[in-house]
# Entry
Amino acid sequence: GQQVMQIPQYQHVQEGEDFTTYCNSSTTLSNIQWYKQRPGGHPVFLIQLVKSGEVKKQKRLTFQFGEAKKNSSLHITATQTTDVGTYFCAGDTDKLIFGTGTRLQVFP
Amino acid sequence: DSGVTQTPKHLITATGQRVTLRCSPRSGDLSVYWYQQSLDQGLQFLIQYYNGEERAKGNILERFSAQQFPDLHSELNLSSLELGDSALYFCASSVEGLAGVDTQYFGPGTRLTVL
# Structure
């Protein structure tokens, strides 16, 4: 079946350092969504990418959709302690398949 | 606050029992999704309903069933519970229920503990 893998599984960074999580699908996706789940919270939608090669920015967050529409990345510049949480990508076929998630820990 | 409500917040029960989890979608949303999140695990899609009809099925066990009622609220029934069913169960809703098009809004979850 379709799989969506994310790497790394965990990332610990010092506040101010950059962070990137990568999402890879076994099949071509129509589009991809990114969600953030704070510790003890529920997933919250961040963004959706639709076009091949698309890049979108939200303040310190940069999202990219690969040219082949099989991979995506989320890059956070100058992390802050408020960035702590698990970041999930979710790829679409006939249903949304969530990636395995990357748990980000930021040390002050 | 996403506008999606789930009850109860916590549920503790014994193996072999049956429980019902309830979800009310955001006002205006026609589609409801159920997910299971085990400790340190990702989100496993269970099932989706749109306007009362089943639309998509994921890794839902035969011991589990769900339905969406005319008022659009949904219930997830878990029976013959096993220890491994202990998890956080999320409900999400969206407007049209089109995967990858709609944004899904998640409820706060129900934490199920099976002893």
